[in-house]
Amino acid sequence: MKVLWKQLGIGIIGAGRIGANLAYWLSKAGWRIKGVISKNNESAAKVAKLIPTGVYNSLTQLLQKCDVAIIAVPDRVIFDILEEICDYERTKVKTIIHTAGVLPATIIKLAGLDYAYASLHPMASISGLDTKKNPFANIFFDIDGDDFGVSLASELAKSLGGEPVIISSDSKALCHCADVFAANFVFACADVALKFFSKAGISEPVAKKMVKGLVESALKNLFALGSPEGLTGPAKRGDINTILIHSFAIEDEELRAVYDAFTDYLFRLSRGESRIPRENTDTAGENGYR
Which terminus of the chain has fewer CB atoms gathered within 10 Å of its CB, N or C? Predict the structure, then answer.
């Protein structure tokens, strides 16, 4: 039997960055957003007015009036919501979806065994509610859950202009870790580079252009040539003296440890060796590189 997806009534739990954007842009895509609930009533009311839809005063109301509940709250709060849902014996809601990145869809079983379930995690940095530009367009959503939940979550992702990627619940944590490496760690590395350029006396506008160019060229090489063929720099060349000069130039011990760890990884990536041959350290020091 064909499911008329957009006839399902959806309730959004949470009116923060993810919840607000989901509620607004799903409504724009033709989905029935029956209402929003949030601890911050003002935020919920603001989103509801834009759709327009209602604001639920309690979780009970949402569970009794919607077919689908989307939980878009911080990870630590999800368990409390699921435990609360578990206390209700009769609900209209038949499917529960959460948007957490690291938690698998299977945690929804804590709400009871009668619900279809899925996780729908946008693999992008989503800021505050944007009513002009869809923040979900052309991004990937990692999705796991049972058959019905995955099908529904995939339809939601496609309606938002995104591309669903189906994963197993067992791989959810590793997939989210990959998100952090690709987004948060790249952000951190670029931020450190900007600070180092600034300390070297380079103006902010010029430094931003330099970092942008470096990041873009590194990614271009990776995607065009693969790994480790696209790698450049002292680790690829085996230039231990340059690596040591860099390490000793970094005053912050924590940043130095990060530099050493990444350099060690890149060295092993390009050579298949266990670690950088630190036995050269003493020789480099005698040559004036300490």
Answer: N
Residue 290 identity: R
H-run or E-run covering 270: helix 253-271
**Residues 160, 134: contact at Cβ < 8 Å?**
yes
Q: What is the spatial distance between Cα 275 and Cα 273, in angstroms, rounded to a whole number?
A: 6
Q: Which residues pair with 82 in a beta bridge?
A: none
Residues 59, 36 contacting (CB under 8 angstroms): no
For residue 122, give Cα distances in angstroms to 5, 220, 224: 20, 24, 26
The type of residue at 191 is D
**Average pLDDT score over residue span 84-91:** 90
Contact between residue 215 and residue 183 where contact means Cβ atoms under 8 Å apart: no
Q: How far is CA 84 from CA 90, 102, 115, 133, 199, in A?
A: 13, 21, 14, 35, 52
Tell me phi and psi for residue 34, to 5 degrees: -75, -25
CA angle 155, 1, 149 (to 5 degrees): 35
Pairing mode of beta strands 140-145, 116-122: antiparallel
Rg (CA), the chain: 24
